[in-house]
Amino acid sequence: MGEITETRYxxxxxxxxxxxxxxxxxxxxxxxxxxxxxxALRGAQLGLKVALVEGGKLGGTCLHNGCIPTKALLHAAExxxxxxxxxxxxxxxxxxxxxxAGVNKYKDTVIGRLYKxxxxxxxxxxxxxxxxxxxxxxxxAVEVNGERITGRNIVLGTGSYARSLPGLDIGGRVxxxxxxxxxxxxxxxxxxxxxxxxxxxxxxxxxxxxADVTIVEALPHLVPNEDEAxxxxxxxxxxxxxxxxxxxxxxxxxxxxxxxVHVSLEDGKTFDADLLLVAVGRGPTTSGLGYxxxxxxxxxxxxxxxxxxxxxxxxxxxxxxxxxxLQLAHRGFAQGIFLAxxxxxxxxxxxxxxxxxxxxxxxxxxxxxxxxxxxxxxxxGADAVETLEYNLGGNGKSQILxxxxxxxLVRQKDGPVIGxxxxxxxxxxxxxxxxxxxxxxxxxxxxxxxxxxHPTQNEALGEAHLALAGKPLHAHN
Length: 477
Hints:
The protein has helices at residues 34-45, 60-65, 67-84, 100-124, 177-180, 197-208, 228-241, 329-343, 373-380, 396-401, 431-439, 444-448, 459-468; strands at residues 24-30, 50-54, 128-131, 134-138, 141-144, 147-156, 160-162, 174-175, 189-193, 212-217, 244-247, 251-256, 261-265, 270-273, 275-278, 282-284, 298-299, 302-303, 316-318, 358-360, 365-370, 385-391, 406-412, 417-424. By secondary structure, the chain is of the alpha/beta class. The strands form six sheets. Strands 1, 2, 3, 4, 5, 6 and 19 form a seven-stranded mixed β-sheet that branches. Strands 8-15-9-10-11 form a five-stranded parallel β-sheet. The chain starts with 23 loop residues before the first strand and ends in a 9-residue tail after the last helix. The relative contact order is 0.12. Its cofactor is FAD. This is Dihydrolipoyl dehydrogenase. One of its GO terms (molecular function) is dihydrolipoyl dehydrogenase (NADH) activity.
């Protein structure tokens, strides 16, 4: 769910809302994003009576103005780069122009198909969908437009919104990702405030579309939550692409006119561009929803839970972006499944945050799972950790694709692999195996003995583990 701007109650043809008449549900879910709808689907699958309250569209931020639309733009950006750079592969193609109306039509078609599929899934599971903004009014009840919906268990999944900085107003040529996703023109120049996942992905798209891009990041590195080796390699790759960035200096202010924006930093530097994208993270949508009034503990707007996502009040649970930690759709989805099984009494294992894969879908991509080298040394001690980097220069498929990068492994000495970190084109598709390696506590020797298909980028994971197991082949280790 996004920011709450209105209260409404609508019945649609897709979802006929039955008169609840005070009937208690097994689960009432507040919010139909990745965490909320996963709770509802799995709960219904387990035979529980479920009500799902959503004031916007099912699928939430991820489907409508997050994961899916941004990745559609990134795919269009990849095609633009391919057309522009075809000659190096012997294909003499040229890029005529970017038709943003066509790009947006393609993007919206993808969203529409997935949205229709999700609606069908919810309908097929006999989940009672209540359209409208809900408020928590008791440990066992949510109110929607004056109607009280009672549940033996309440799951809060109200999602997040695009944050700004204090005193930085959004409007006109100063925008968040919400407005950027609806642009019907390609800016000639853009300042991106924030070098994390969202900022880096938009910077990548706009550069591919032909814009002059500058990223402003107050922390010392781009993608600052990643292993430092990946951050430095990412910066080199962006620099090579002609994406400019300013690191380690805070934003001071912006003015705008009909012609563009004028951005100033605390060190006195200034930048001018057509637009300023504010990509400083996402905040939890919890204000004004009755959470604090019902005794829930909030920290900077986030709902505090234990490892089993229980809030400490009644049978109230929280899921997804409102729970401190990684704000990722697949995290919320997994938490939703976990909660449905927890409520059904199946006692599922708690989700380990470090075992959740993370991907930045820019060019190049960054993908990781497990502990960074710095975090591993903090937890286990510097002498108890070893690392290895395998360069994609030794990987046949990466050479075919023309991408640079590497796989970095972090392991406990004489123990399992506890971190997999990758940078390069398409490496996000490799993180599935990385997740299995880390979460199943595999030793390098375990992975080295597996046969990886040739030629694939997936081989890079096999080669990296061969090297870490002491028998490097396509590597100088």
